[in-house]
């Protein structure tokens, strides 16, 4: 596996400042496209998307149903390959190498959480959380303190011997966040993590994602169509018909939910 800790800055005049500005970039999409066959024709589902997310940043992407949010997130996670363009995670180009290489980058550098949790029903909370450590060949016992502090941070320490079926939706999502973070990835991607939760449980999950970005320095990218969730971000990007509305990005959050609604209305999405 090639390892380059940082994306490389170009040499020449201005190289120092370019290197400075790239230093803490954890995720970078460069002109990413994804084509899919729709009624026999290749159509762009993701169109020319470029942006970067830095360590400790809590960024959100909003967009209506079918705008390409999940497709984009799968490309950013290396679960799918762009038709054109590049995805860099902690300096690793996900377009390079084979599936094994992408899986290796995913296991160590990317945490992913889903709308429907995807916990394994026959494993306890603790076994679910520590599974990614086993997958990369590490003994959970060696990481006892860190696992315990993660379970504590996510508020699920008391539940560690339960099976997923004995948890509420909010608890399941908090467990899946702990599982996503157990290998200490620099990047956490979340696809509509509150979509299957009550409004209160959803708010708690978004607050926890904020805490994770602040306390652990993890870059968090949250995809949502919920303006309330998006308002909690440091930054909101808007996706429409597969393209990022760069002119419409909101920065400097958390925001007033009304600001996000207003922006959506202005954009007609
Ligand atoms: N495997 C596929 N083959 C062809 N088209 C697909 C495929 N998967 C998704 N699409 C299409 O790509 C577009 C974007 O889908 P995507 O699931 O990324 O949207 P989304 O923004 O995540 O929507 P939602 O908010 O409903 O989850 C949609 O028009 C969808 O029908
Ligand atoms: Mg989706």
Describe this structure in words.
With 269 residues, this protein is of the alpha/beta class. The chain has a domain at 23-118 and 187-267: P-loop containing nucleotide triphosphate hydrolases (Rossmann fold), CATH 3.40.50.300. Helix content is 35%, strand content 25%. The protein has helices spanning 15-22, 69-76, 99-109, 125-135, 144-153, 169-181, 199-216, 227-231, 257-267; strands at 25-38, 41-54, 58-62, 84-89, 92-93, 110-113, 187-191, 219-224, 235-240, 243-244, 250-251. Strands 3, 6, 7, 8, 9, 10 and 11 form a seven-stranded mixed beta sheet that branches. A hairpin with a 2-residue loop joins strand 4 (84-89) and strand 5 (92-93). Helix 4 packs parallel to helix 6 (169-181) and helix 6 (169-181) runs parallel beside helix 7 (199-216). Mean pLDDT is 89; it is low at 1-16. Bound molecules: adenosine-5'-triphosphate and magnesium ion (MG). The site of magnesium ion has 2 residues, from helix 2.
């Amino acid at each position: 596996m090639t390892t380059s800790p940082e994306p490389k800055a170009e040499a020449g005049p201005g190289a120092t400042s370019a290197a400075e500005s790239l230093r803490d970039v954890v995720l970078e999409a460069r002109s990413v496209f994804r084509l899919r066959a729709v009624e026999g024709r290749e159509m762009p589902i993701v169109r020319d998307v470029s942006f970067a997310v830095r360590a400790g940043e809590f960024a959100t992407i909003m967009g209506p149903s079918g705008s390409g949010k999940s497709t984009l997130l799968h490309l950013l996670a290396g679960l799918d390959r762009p038709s054109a363009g590049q995805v860099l995670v902690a300096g690793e180009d996900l377009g390079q190498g084979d599936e094994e290489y992408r899986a290796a980058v995913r296991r160590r550098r990317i945490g992913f959480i889903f709308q429907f949790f995807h916990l394994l029903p026959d494993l306890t909370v603790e076994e679910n959380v520590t599974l990614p450590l086993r997958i990369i060949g590490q003994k959970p016992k060696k990481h006892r303190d860190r696992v315990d502090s993660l379970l504590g941070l996510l508020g699920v320490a008391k539940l560690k011997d339960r099976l997923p079926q004995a948890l509420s939706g909010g608890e399941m999502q908090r467990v899946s966040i702990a599982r996503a973070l157990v290998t200490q990835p620099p990047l956490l991607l979340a696809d509509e993590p509150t979509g299957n939760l009550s409004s209160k449980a959803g708010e708690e999950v978004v607050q926890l994602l904020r805490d994770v970005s602040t306390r652990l320095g993890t870059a968090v990218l949250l995809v949502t169509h919920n303006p309330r969730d998006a308002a909690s971000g440091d930054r909101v990007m808007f996706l429409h018909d597969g393209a990022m509305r760069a002119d419409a990005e909101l920065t400097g959050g958390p925001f007033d939910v009304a600001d996000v609604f207003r922006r959506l209305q202005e954009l007609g999405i």
